[in-house]
Each structure stands twice: as C-alpha cells, then as structure tokens.
Amino acid sequence: MDRKITKYVLEALSVLYSNKADIKSEVHVEKTKKGIDGDFTVVVFPLVKYSKKSPQDTAQEIGVFIKSRYKEIASYNVIKGFLNLTMSSECWIDALNKLNTEELNKANSPKDKTFMIEFSSPNTNKPLHLGHIRNNLLGDSISKILKANGYDIIKANLINDRGIHICKTIYAWIKWGKGATPESEKIKGDKLVGNFYVLFENKYKAQVEKLIKSGMDKHEAENSASLIIETREILKKWEANDPEIIEIWKMMNEWVYKGFNETYKNIGIEFDKYYYESETYLLGKDIVKRGLEDNIFYKEKDNSVWIDLEKEEFEKKLLLRDDGTTVYMTQDLGTAFQRFDDYELDKIIYVVGNEQNYHFKLLKEIIAKFDKNMAKKIKHLSYGMVELPEGKMKSREGKVVDADDLINEMLVTARKIAKEQGKIHELSKQEREKIIRIIAMGALKYFILKIDPKKNMIFNPAESIDFNGNTGPFIQYTYARIKSVLRNAEKMKIKFTGKISEDTKIVDKEINLISQLISYKTTVENASETLDPGIITNYLYDLVKEYNQFYHDYNILKEKSFNILQFRLILSQQVAEIIQAGMNLLGIEVPEIM
Which of 259, 324, 325, 469 lies at a C-alpha separation of 20 to 30 Å from 408? Predict the structure, then answer.
C-alpha cells in the first residue's frame, strides 16, 4: 500500500509541478505515528525543491490532488511538513481480499544468487551445548529467511574433527579410558568423548600448576608439561596417518557423530553439505605452498610459515608451525577455496561467535591477497555469547549447559505447564507429547531468536516458556485459539470463503490488523537484509497482541451481521496463516490445540 501512495505522490509532483525526473527514492512513506489521525504519512520536506513552496502548502496541494483522484484515500490532514492520509474501508478490504495465504511460504521472485550459510561447526571433542544451540538456531532461521526472499541456499556444517584438541581426547582415552565405549558406559558418544576432554584438561592444569610452583613461568610450564608434549606427538602421528591413531580417531568420531545427529534431530536441524577439517586441512597446506611461491607468505628460519599484514594494520599471522602442522587459519583458507570450487557462490555467510571477529577480518584480508572478488563474497555473521543467570560457561572445565540436558529441561517445564493449563488432557499420550515438544522447542527457539544476534544474551528457561509476554508459547497459543474459532465456525456450518463484501463496515482494530498483515512480506525482506530473525519475532508479537485485543473487544461467532461475521473469520484465518508462515521462518511449529 505504501508503494501505491508513492506512485500517487510522484504523479502529483509531475502534474502539479511539471516534475519529470525519477525521484522515487526521495518520496518517504511511513506508518502514521500513534495519536495522529491517519494511516500513512508522506514526509514532504524533501519535495519542496520541486514545488518551490513551503512544506505546509506543498503537503496541502498534494493532499488535495490525491484525494480528488483516488477513491482509496478517505481523507487527509497536514501537520507542518507531514501529509497524513487515511485509507478508505474499501481499500483495506480490497487489500485483505488480495492477500493470498497459500503464497506466504513461497519465496519472493528468485534472485539468481546462491548463498552458503555455514553454521554449527562443532568440535568432535565435546557434545553440543547452549552456545551451539544459539548458533544452530540462528543459522537455520537465517537460511529459511534468505530462501523465502528468493536466494538459493546451501546449509553447510564444517566438522572440526582434527587438531590438538581432538588429540587430547584420543590421548585421554588411550591413557585412562580402559576401553570404555558408549555402550559400556551407557552414555551418548559425544558426552563420553567430552568427559575425556574435561579429564585431560583437569590433569593438564594440575601439571602446569606444579611446574609453575617449581619455578617456571606460565608459558614455559604450559609447553613443558608431559601431557601436552605427548599429545603433540599424537597429532604428528595423526598427520603422518599412523594406523593405530587413525583407527582410534575414527572410532571416537563415530561415537560423536551419532550423538550430534540425535541432538540435531531434536532441535530440527538439517544440513545440505558437510565439510570435515580432516579433509580440508591439506588444501590449506596447498594454499600455503601457493602463497610462498607468490611471495604472499614467507618462511622463518625454523621453517614456520607466516604472513605479514602489519601494513594493513593487522599482526603477523602464523600459517604453518615449525613442525609442519597447520593452524585454524590454514584450515579455513583451504575450506573457503574448496567451497568456491564446489559451487558458484555469490556469498558465504559464516555464523560464528563474536570472539572470532578478528579471525574473520584476517581471513578476508589473506584471501584478498589471492582473489579480491572472493574476499568480497565472505560475510561473518557475528553473534554474541549466551550466558546463564549464574554466569559464563566454560567447556574446558565441564561448566556448560549441555544441549540435550537443556532440551529435556524444556520438555519437563512444558509438560508441567501443559498439565496446569489442562487444555490437552483429552488427547492421547502420543498427541500430548507431540504438542509438549512443539511448545518446548518453540519456547527455546523464540527466546533465543528474538534477541539481536549482535548482542550477548542471558538464557532463562523458565522465562522463555511463559504463556504471557513476548514468548514462543504466547504466539503458539494465539494460533491455537484462532484455529479453535475456525473449527467451531465449521461445526456451526458457517461458510467463510470467497471475497469480503466492500460495503462491510470495519473498525480501527480490524484496520490495524490488516495493516500489519500486509506488511509481512516487507518484514521478511528486512530480516533478510539485516540477517536478524528478531525482526520477525517482534512482528509476530505485535500482530498477536493486536489480534488478542481485537478478540477480547469484538464478537466473532456471535456476530449477527453476515458480512461482518464473514470478514472477521477471514481476517482471523489470515492472521493464523501469517503466524504459521512467520514461525516457520524461525524453525518453530505451531500446534492447533493447546
């Protein structure tokens, strides 16, 4: 509707002031502020250079012109340099009639661009935790939002399955594991491996502290501890393809992958492409070799390889250790080049926490030395850390919120609340558990996604599952309420299909709802441009608040006027469809009964 008003304003400028220039970008149309009469406001100040008149007179003349020519404009008023337009009831009804809910889940016109979204990217030395949950939910939702805006999307997961941290778990299992398996310990494989990682770190920490007490400084102690020396030997053996180490590595990785897949399934996450660092790190070595040949990198006397970016206001960066082993940057270089070889990508979006901001700036800078165009296609979606009310998590010390434990806690809380509400007690146990899971996952996802990705956040499970306020269950409950109204209408044999009659009398609350409904597509576009699912959560919350107020103030099924009854049922149906479409972009299901 704002585009239509822009068209009318441009026509007015052409006729009234003989302006033939393309000035669409200078016409600003926005929703009228609360407390002012009108639906849309035209900011006139930028247009006075064409009228050569005051903002007040310009707004008045444009208002007269538009009102006299277009029946959609019921009235107008001018406040200083602002032209406030009130749309006719017929205009709003026409807009609602044109809303095709079946098209909501379809993408906007194709962009002919392919984006790869990398997210999750776990290490195979520990289970997924709350931090991974935010990463996965952001990556998945952003993928859905971009796809809804017409982009071809490849969801990629880079498994960090090699390196010194992985060798720590291998060492711990060999030294202290006594042949333990997930079956023998009755524990998920990723949790078992994570326990060995924590065990190693605790024993290593004790060794380091002992060496410091003997007179070494911290750096010397950390590098002289026998545990780290022996672990580095395992890393060398791994890179040398030692059969015994490789066999243990594969076995432990399989335990972890099975555990990861179970967690991914529980939160509804799937990927289109998996990359493994164990396969791409060698590509990084090839890039290092190429960089040395092209004098992009240089070699020190100890054979370590570096890049000097001090002129670009970065530090010197190590790319290959003196023993020939790689670092994270080397692996990321190899993986990036591999992806552009695998696909014709227009952009790679890395969903990675803000503690890696410097790393990705450096990655782009190094890639630009090889290919400036490729570097421009790399985007780091930096997000803030997740903390608990009691403070920061520390995975090395085992002080983390395990993803599986969190999901179970959400299920327990949802089950308790559902029992208190008493809405689903008549359903079968299987149906009840399905709805409880939908509520629990909806609460978790919505709470995390409503926060601006750039901000740190504190996750409170109890607060997230509240049925009131800006929460997933509140949105889900409104959807279920509407579906209940529509089911009751069908039981009463009330038909609510076809077009709404233009002479139906509608009230301000209904106009507000239609106005919000028709802004859905723009909202999804904004979320795509900013890579922020929170824009959609805020939109849904405002829509649901408006609908619940309407539901409280006006009769639907008891309405005596057939036209108004038809209108309110179709309006309710459209609200439900938009809720479902928006929640789908957040990866959240909506139950029909709650």
Answer: 469
